[in-house]
Known about the structure:
The structure holds two protein chains of two kinds.
Chain A: H1 4-11, H2 17-56
Chain B: H1 2-11, H2 15-38, H3 43-51, H4 55-76, H5 79-122, H6 126-135, H7 141-160, H8 166-208, H9 215-247, E1 280-283, E2 288-290, E3 293-295, H10 297-314, E4 325-328, H11 334-346, E5 353-364, E6 368-379, E7 381-383, H12 385-393, E8 403-406, H13 413-425, E9 430-433
Parallel strand pairs in B: 1-4, 4-5, 7-9, 8-9
Antiparallel strand pairs in B: 1-2, 2-3, 5-6
Helix pairs in contact in B: 1-5, 2-3, 2-4, 2-5, 4-5, 5-6, 5-7, 6-8, 7-8, 10-11
Amino acid sequence: xxxxxxxxxxxxxxxxxxxxxxxxxxxxxxxxxxxxxxxxxxxxxxxxxxxxxxxxxx
Amino acid sequence: xxxxxxxxxxxxxxxxxxxxxxxxxxxxxxxxxxxxxxxxxxxxxxxxxxxxxxxxxxxxxxxxxxxxxxxxxxxxxxxxxxxxxxxxxxxxxxxxxxxxxxxxxxxxxxxxxxxxxxxxxxxxxxxxxxxxxxxxxxxxxxxxxxxxxxxxxxxxxxxxxxxxxxxxxxxxxxxxxxxxxxxxxxxxxxxxxxxxxxxxxxxxxxxxxxxxxxxxxxxxxxxxxxxxxxxxxxxxxxxxxxxxxxxxxxxxxxxxxxxxxxxxxxxxxxxxxxxxxxxxxxxxxxxxxxxxxxxxxxxxxxxxxxxxxxxxxxxxxxxxxxxxxxxxxxxxxxxxxxxxxxxxxxxxxxxxxxxxxxxxxxxxxxxxxxxxxxxxxxxxxxxxxxxxxxxxxxxxxxxxxxxxxxxxxxxxxxxxxxxxxxxxxxxxxxxxxxxx
Lengths: 58, 436
């Protein structure tokens, strides 16, 4: 049995296919950007230890 | 394996708390996934689930800070306790890094899955898109592997430095750091391309999906994308100072220069010889110091004698080389030099190295100004009239003294030092003769 939100969703008018694709692509793109930012953050956090050691032996 | 893990945790300040935080946060993400599959979670619960992710980097930052302070304290402390504190600090940094990275990454992956599940509860067409999108976080796996491998390698290399001569440590460490940095960057590059590849794959599925979404679903997708972009912007802002620091190259290490003292200001000269490890006698215009401790001329002689006796006791069979490093103020007068060098001579240090220090300061984006001392020297002999008489009486060849530089002919250390450098640069030996 559908809940109130799902029923509301079903009743809501569908958007165009083009708009749907653009918004879904935006979501996927946002995931990609977030993953790239996380990758960058992790790498530079770890490289900070490298910098600390180089600072000590400067 | 468990013992190794326990030892690693033991090195990390607040290590047990960090492990507990990783377990609690990942457990909370798992619970959210399970609950999300059974019923729709309230926005408040989802907010707590997302915010809890911050617990790991916050605790990691606290731990890093504690290790960093310990490391700096080790550098500033007494040699015996300082080395231990320095090693403890580095161990904390090196062990906390992979643990924090692994914990954050696993929690992020679980959070992404939970987000996809939660979105699926809200909109029937959301799970596929969100799940495909969340899949790109799997691309971080290569970086994760790189962090663990490079961390292990760095720990191994640091441990192996214990038996290495001090003068080789900096070069070896730098080589190890270059190696780990290059490999970590390669793993990061693999991750970057994997993320882009998985993103492109998800895009293909999105474009080939023939269904149109409802306007309400689109609004939620847009909101979700906005949250993700804000998350990315936050990480980028936090990483900016780290990136500025880690991407700015360090100048090459100064090989064979051990002089840490930049005081007093020596003549602006470059000597032809490398400074060796030996007691450092500092001659200021108003005082004397030995290895940084203020001394009188008599104290200087007595302490040098003690050091000489210790050398002979600790190295039986090894000839005492009589080397002392002289760091003298360029404005020091001949009489001040005479007094200090007289004490050095009386203690039996007959091969002084007159050192010339130049300090170099670099401003780093995160560390601020950092300074090191470049030092060169002139190796010389030291004798007085009595040595002359004794050596002549013994029939010794005095020509090996090379160019003789009488101290009394110079009015300041600046002019004496220039003469010593000139004479030594011709390739011959040089000796300072102390006047009466």
